[in-house]
Specification:
By secondary structure, the chain is α+β, with helices and mostly antiparallel strands. It is 50% helix and 21% strand. The chain has an 8-stranded mixed sheet with strand order 1-7-6-5-2-3-4-8. A two-stranded antiparallel ribbon has the order 9-10. Strand 6 and strand 7 form a beta hairpin. Helix 1 crosses helix 2 (38-48) and helix 9 (207-217) crosses helix 10. The protein starts with a strand and ends with a helix.
Length: 278
């Protein structure tokens, strides 16, 4: 099959290129994102946060299992993708690997996302017999793909419920932790339960309230929150004080230890979360 590639979108990184692609896409259109490499999947989730749901086209991500597992394991990527799924803007399906060429297949155009060593990234148009035959085969692959569960609550729901249940200050601190994670070399390493316990300790939140919120929103079980709290206590990052209640066992109020409270005072929440994660 003869195929020609024509230069189209260029940028310094996949996110900037995908942002430009989304800004030019027609909201009523459908695009199949096929076998995208992980940097472009992450770029899709990040770039989409800059648009309202009604401004985005319908995205159908059809990828290999290892790529989708990477998405699931990246809290930021998965939570952002879950936002799109809740808004009916994104659907995710798994398929067996067929070829090595990543594609963005629209109704009247085939595009190929590229990673360019030393010069950033690009999405180029594919022309020729391959582009003419691809849409039908991609549609068939989508129909036979297996739905893939992200298992992560939507980021918007996390932010809304954390503010409602634990207060806007804690929500703002958690947002700062997310922003710092996005600048790290490996944003996928951000561990939300650890960050939630740390920012809760920075705000003097009751552990019971935190773990109840986390389990209700689907972030993690109460047992996971308790286990992580214990680990942070052993590391000398978090401490607790008992708070009596009218009925039942006393509750535990989370606090930072003196060392990490000084980090908070001197450098702020983003550095606090980064130092704990590091």
């Amino acid at each position: 099959m003869s195929t020609q590639l024509e230069s189209e979108l260029h940028g310094t990184d996949p996110t900037s290129v995908f942002r430009e692609f989304l800004s030019e896409a027609t909201p009523s259109s459908v695009y199949y994102l096929v076998d995208l490499p992980w940097p472009y999947v992450a770029a899709m989730t990040e770039a989409s946060t800059e648009f309202d749901a009604e401004e985005l086209p319908e995205l159908r991500l059809l990828a290999r299992r290892e790529t989708l597992v990477s998405l699931r394991q990246s809290f930021l990527g998965s939570a952002r993708a879950a936002n799109l799924v809740e808004a009916d803007t994104l659907a995710v399906r798994e398929r067996e690997p067929v070829g090595d060429t990543p594609l963005i297949v629209g109704e009247d155009q085939i595009r190929v996302p590229l990673l360019l060593d030393g010069t950033g990234a690009a999405i180029v148009s594919a022309q020729g017999s391959f582009a003419e035959s691809a849409p039908e085969s991609i549609t068939d692959a989508w129909e036979h793909g297996e739905q893939f569960a992200l298992r992560t609550p939507a980021l918007g729901r996390i932010r809304e419920t954390i503010a409602d249940d634990l207060g806007p200050d804690l929500r703002d601190d958690f947002d700062q932790g997310l922003a710092r994670a996005a600048t790290q070399r490996d944003p996928g390493s951000f561990e939300p339960v650890t960050a939630a316990v740390v920012v809760a300790a920075a705000n003097g939140t009751l552990h019971y309230d935190l773990s109840r919120w986390g389990e209700t929103v689907g972030l993690a079980s109460k047992a996971t929150f308790s286990r992580r709290k214990g680990e942070l206590e052993e590391l000398g990052i978090v401490t607790t004080e008992k708070v009596p209640v009218d009925m039942g066992r006393p509750r535990q109020r989370l606090h930072l230890t003196e060392e990490y409270d000084s980090v908070l005072d001197d450098h702020g929440v983003d550095e606090l979360v980064a130092r704990v994660a590091g």
